[in-house]
Amino acid sequence: MLYDRKQLVLYSLVVLFYSSGAYPGGGGGDLHTCPKSLLHSPYLRTYNGHCYEFKLDGGLSWVEAESACRNHGGHLVSVNSPEERQFLLTTLFSMWFHGDYVLIGLTDSKREGTFVWSSGETTSFMDWAYGQPDQYIHGKKRFLVPIPPVPREEDCVGMRFKDWGHWHDVPCDRPFISPYICEYAPTTHVPTKTTSVTMTPLASTTTPTRHAETSEESIDPPKTTVATVPSTEWVTLGKRGMLSYWHLILNKHN
């Protein structure tokens, strides 16, 4: 991809603006909203609470890309506003993306001419390039011999980076492949419970029988407390945990 001088200047300004953190949602963001199954790589971003995975190496067909996103609980990205579109383009600039198309979740595969998002979201925002969607390959010349336009199914959509991110309809299946962007709704991670928390429901649900009394007598609270304190400090404080452990032992003997 070749840039003229104006494009290079704009490119540099966009990258500097993005990396400075002045752009809302810029940078990696809080990746805790991303699914745990994703690797925390430089290609993850967050915006308005949603997680975006930029898959820019290699490429897949639209159908394959949508399936890959669903495997982690997401969909191909839905672009619902000019601000979200700008966020995506700015991120692509900051990642020094030099490709042509990036697949998004828009498709009219179910009903010709009615484009919907694969996530089921609805929006009035559209950003078609001039003359799009066109549903066919434009005529070309090969060895100075004109080749007429060839009709083909173009029921899916990609942002064309060389056309400043405006949308073009593209085939959904191979041989057309392209990089793509997955979007994931915010994910809530439940913190790991400690031993004391997991023991509570067992004690509260035990019926007052002879077996329950035997079970309660087998628990030694003082020993449980002594064993838990150094173990917890070692995990959370590293080397300081070892110092706390010996300090506890010395105090016990004194």
Automatic annotation (TrEMBL):
Signal peptide positions (record): 1-22
Alphabetic keyword roster: Signal
Domain C-type lectin intervals: 47-174
Biased composition (Low complexity): 198-209
InterPro entries documented for this protein: C-type_lectin-like, C-type_lectin-like/link_sf, C-type_lectin/snaclec_domain, CTDL_fold
PROSITE patterns membership: C_TYPE_LECTIN_2
Region feature (Disordered): 198-225
Top-rank lineage group of the source organism: Eukaryota
Gene3D superfamilies, sorted: Mannose-Binding Protein A, subunit A (3.10.100.10)
PANTHER family assigned to the protein according to its UniProt record, in alphabetical order: MANNOSE, PHOSPHOLIPASE, LECTIN RECEPTOR RELATED
Name by which UniProt lists this protein: C-type lectin domain-containing protein
